[in-house]
Write a structure and sequence with these properties.
This protein has 155 residues and is an all-alpha fold. The protein contains nine helices and two strands; from the N terminus they run H-H-H-H-H-H-H-H-E-E-H. A hairpin with a 2-residue loop joins strand 1 (117-118) and strand 2 (121-122).
Length: 155
Amino acid sequence: MTKEKLESIFWSIALPGFPQILNGKLTKGILFIGLEILINVQSNFNTVIMLSFQGETEKAIEQTNYQWLMFYPCLYFFAMWDAYKDADDKNSPLMFLPFVFSAYFVTIGVIYSSSIKINNVLLGPIWFPILCLPIGLLIGIVIKKIILYKIKNSN
């Protein structure tokens, strides 16, 4: 991974839209930042994060607006993929798959987060989706490798 790609990923983790602005794509960057703020405010995301880190999972679940929070992973991972893609012209084929499957599994994690318990501990809308992320990444990477292997060996 190049320095530019790594930098784009880290800036996008900090706030979706920053790398796009740094790359001179102001309209796209402002749109991503605006959507991030809208979804963040409507879903009460900062309050939910704070309560989750303080161990107040039940309060976090009560504060969460799930209809808005379910949009966040898709925006987050799309903005991250877009920043990654724009950082370098030599993108590997199907590089979007790990981002897509991460967004999908984190969204599924959000949906089930108010009812999933591990060792009788309710994980809530922050911790369970985070635990779903590696599953999405792994599945996306495996599917990408399988498709590229089949393409390479079909020639």
